[in-house]
Write a structure and sequence with these properties.
This protein has about 325 residues and is of the alpha+beta class. The chain has seven helices and 19 strands. Helix 1 crosses helix 2, helix 3 packs across helix 4 and helix 4 packs parallel to helix 5. The longest helix is centred in the first third of the chain and has 22 residues.
Length: about 325
């Protein structure tokens, strides 16, 4: 039992990045032993009972164990390691949090053994209607908005800290003078120097926006470069190929989605409809073209779909009707 307790102790310290190379090799060997599955099941059951006072399903225990082995190179032909956040309700709220913590630690393992590195990427995604957050190996914290994918390679942190983004994410970057932190979103590159910022770069949007909340960032795209100060935005118009620096009235609105709040600064209903598809996975159908140009401003703290659409309908001359996964907007008569 003492040896089993030691393995759990090493596992917990490994997740915090506090193990030696010898201990990591020992942990990897143990995880490959059939007996480790039962020990991990008991460990997760205890963690679950402390956190939720509920029984952890055997199927979930099995998935978690297989996921750990997968992250440590146990699979034969992996192309990318993916964590997909489909739901934060019930059981999966705890499981997702546990796996994100494990992934952050396991990335340190891959960096420690370059001779074992394969050309792989770690991928974290938040699907439509979901959000997610992760702590990267260097301590950088990232929040992903709905319909967003973040990708980083096994070389992360060796010479630089590079991540690729499709969608929207908020970053709190760990300071490191020797290794720059770079976010690539398509052709847009945002370089941070120990800072907090938001990047919104969905493929289907006409503009890509980087918003600085604290510190300093450098943005580059299409031969254009700009350094942002706090509360400034770099707005790249994809159709015009132009990069402009602006100072919005409420820069903090940009990242309020992290706390489950929706903030609008004069967006049209047509623009809000795109947001609804990402956040709630619903389609919006307009019964009249002029409705699309109506604008809405304000902060909504209870962001359930019903509450949001009700508040918007109270401030604009529209009525709405919900049919399954479709919201129909009509002119109020």
């Amino acid at each position: 039992m003492e040896k089993q307790d030691r393995h759990i102790d090493v596992l917990e310290r490994f997740m915090q990045g506090a193990t030696t190379i010898e201990e990591e090799q020992e942990l990897l060997t143990w995880l490959r032993e059939p007996s480790s599955a039962g020990v991990l099941a008991i460990y997760y059951q205890q963690k679950w009972e402390v956190s939720q006072q509920k029984e952890l399903e055997a199927e979930v225990q099995c998935r978690m164990f297989l996921h750990i082995k997968e992250q440590m190179g146990y699979e034969e032909h992996p192309k990318a390691k993916r964590i997909s956040f489909r739901s934060f309700r019930g059981t999966w709220r705890y499981v997702a949090a546990m796996l994100v913590g494990l992934l952050a630690g396991l990335t340190v393992y891959w960096a420690a053994f370059p001779q074992q590195t394969r050309e792989e990427d770690f991928i974290v995604s938040a699907e439509r209607g979901q959000r997610a957050n992760i702590t990267l190996p260097d301590g950088t914290r990232v929040w992903l908005n709905s319909h967003t994918e973040l990708r980083y390679g096994t070389e992360y942190g060796h010479k630089e800290r590079l991540v690729e983004l499709e969608g929207e994410a908020y970053f709190e970057v760990a300071k490191d003078k020797n290794r720059r932190f770079v976010v690539r979103a398509g052709d847009l590159e945002v370089e941070a120097l120990g800072t907090s910022f938001d990047v919104k770069a969905y493929k289907e949007d006409k503009t890509w926006v980087a918003t600085l909340l604290e510190g300093k960032v450098r943005t580059r795209i299409a031969g254009q470069e700009a350094i942002l100060k706090p509360d400034q935005q770099a707005v790249y118009n994809k159709e015009e190929g132009s990069l402009q620096i602006t100072r919005p009235d409420n820069a903090a609105y940009t990242c309020m989605w992290r706390d489950g709040e929706l903030a609008f600064s004069g967006e049209t209903l047509e623009e809000i409809a795109v947001m609804f598809k990402r956040l709630y996975n619903v389609e919006v159908r307009f019964e009249a073209e002029d409705i699309k140009s109506y604008r809405f401003s304000g902060v909504i703290k209870n962001n359930s779909l019903e509450n949001v659409i009700e508040l918007i309908s109270l401030t604009a001359p529209i009525t709405y009707q919900a049919k399954r996964d479709t919201i129909i907007l009509s002119t109020r008569r």
